[in-house]
Each structure stands twice: as C-alpha cells, then as structure tokens.
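Troubleshooting: if your tokenizer reports a length mismatch, compare against these two reference records.
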Amino acid sequence: MSIRNSSTSNPIFNDYFWDDGRDSSKKMTVFGIFVKSFVGIIVIAAITSYIWKLSTEGVDTGWFTLGGMLASIVISIIISLRTQWAGFLVPLYIIAKGVFLGGFSAYAHKNYPELPYQAIGVTIVTFFVMLLLYQTRIIVVTKKLRSVIITATISIMVVYLVSWILGFFGIKTFIWGTSWLAIGFNILAAIVASFALLLDFDYIERYKNKAPKQKEWLATWGLLATLIWLYVEALRLLQKFAIKFR
C-alpha cells in the first residue's frame, strides 16, 4: 500500500508526514527512534527535577506549567506545518515539555510527594503492557480502531481546550473537579491515551526502514507526546483520588 495513501493513525502524524525526502538513502529505524526518545525522556526528567528543586526552595513554579504548555503547543503547530524543521524543533519541544511537566509535577510533589513517582510508574507499566498487547497481536490496530481512537482523542482535546478558555472567564467546568463525573472523564482520557500508544507502535512498524532517516524526529515527537499525555492523565487522576479520599 502506498505510504502517500495510507490513513492517519496518530493525530500527531499527518498524511504529508511521509511525502518529502522519500528518496533518501538512510531510512528511519526503530533503534534511531528509541535513542532519540530515550535521550528526550532523560532531558525532560532532568528539567523536571530541577524545577522540583526550585519549588522546594520556595520558587513559584506555576508559570513554568503555563509557559511550557503554550510553548509546546506553538512548537507542535510549527512542526506540523514545517516537518522539515523537526530536527531542530523537536529538541525545543522536549525542553518545553520538560518545563511544563516540571511545573505541573512540582505542584503535585509539593502537596502529595509520592504521586509523581506513582504516575511515572503507571506510565511505564502501561507503555510495556500496550507494547506487549500490540506485539502479540492481542489487540490488532485496524482502520476502525484507528478512527475510534483518533475521534476520541480529538474530542477529549476539544473538551480540554474549551474548559481552559472558559476558565479565563471564571467558569469552572466539571473536568477540573473531584466529582465522580470528573474522575470518570479522567479515566476515559487515560484509557484513550493508552490506546494512542498502539497507533504510535503501528506507524513505527509500518514505516520503519521505509521513511527517510530524518523522520525519526517526527516519530519521536509523536511517541513522546503520547507518553507525556498519559503521564499527565495518570497524575491528575491520582491527585483527584488523593483529594477525594484524604
């Protein structure tokens, strides 16, 4: 099947993702994506740890969360429009996400010191569970499954965006509370984030040794974006449980 005509799996990836530079002699490899993703995770962890340290010293880290989030969104939009810049922009995205997670995690760490570590554990376990389910074909990524996951992901992101905008006008939507409805939404978002990993695995497997080497940066971007989303949902869910049952 032509790569050009293939349907989108991960919403991070666009159809034209694979269009340019297809005649490159060096191809995208799983090892290359692994190395870039691993280094990216190390950088994010280092930045997060530093911001945690600032938080313990009394520095207000709230602005790190907002600044990192906005920067990562802007960078993501630019990467989507200028995929050939990914080699330069994805490292900047990693730094922005590190700043965002540093501020986000510092708040949780300050109030519930054990929660960020638990969320990291949940993310790691979920990653390997989904990888096992994918590799053993217990869950097969079909066209219908892709459509369901993409639709669910877009819907969740729209809810978050609308809720965030309404927050500026003093309107607090249900997703930010600790009601069972809010918790249920959080659980649903975490499940969708988990299944989004399957789409990352599927794309990497289908286009490894086919797409140009430079596309490893884009694959890394998609994988890290999903892992970070999963971590955020896990940490938010753990926070809600901690508040509700304290």
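Reference record two:
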Amino acid sequence: MVDRNKTAPQTHVETFPNPAPERDFVIRIRVPEFTCLCPVTGQPDFAELYLEYIPEALCVELKSLKLYVWSFRERGAFHEAVTNEILGVLAGATQPRFMRLTGTFNVRGGIYTSVVAEHRAPGWVPAPPVALPGA
C-alpha cells in the first residue's frame, strides 16, 4: 500500500495492477526536474527523463516515482550510469513487456548528453504499426 503522507526520498518504486493486461498500451511519463551531482566536480546536473513503457501485470505508481527520482539529488552519478540504473529499478519493479528511458541532460561545458536505455521482456514482439489514411 502507498503511504500518501510520505514526503522523503525513497530508493524504490511502488506499483499497482495493470488495469488492462489483455492489451498492449503505452504509458508515457515526463520527469522535467531530475537532478543529480556530477561525480567529478560535485556540481549539479539537470535533466529531463522520458519514460515510455508497455506494462505487463504492474504499472509504476507516480508519487513513488517522484520520491525515487528525488533520491538522486545528492548523489554523484555519470549520465550513462544513472539512466541505466533507473531503468533497471523500474523494469525490475514492473517487469514490463517493453520499457525505454531517455535522459536528456542540460548543457555542461558546451556539451549536451542524451542517454537512451531499453528493456524488452523475453519473447515480446511489438505489434506492427498501424497506418491510418489521410490527415
């Protein structure tokens, strides 16, 4: 059960049952205020996280996701490592059919970084795209 009064960072995410496990559908979540620390300089790094996933039995509970993301604020982490770590925790908690996490990090020393990490359940094959006429 989710503790609705909790207002401190947490190192895990909570889940809830997928309301439509009989079909593939996409959940898209945008986290515009992700922060961590540069492990070399200790200066803050800012990023937007984009999560897209097709759930199996479980979905990510949003308040717990917010509290989980908050736990990185005082941690040193390379962009590549933190993106893969977050994907691992989210995919581990939900066991989705498919999950993609994109971390788009703000400029640092004139360089922008985007990291894209994906998880696919063994044997899962996406449905072919549907082309609708006109528009």
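Descriptive notes for reference record two:
- The chain has a mean pLDDT of 93.
- The first helix runs from residue 62 to 70.
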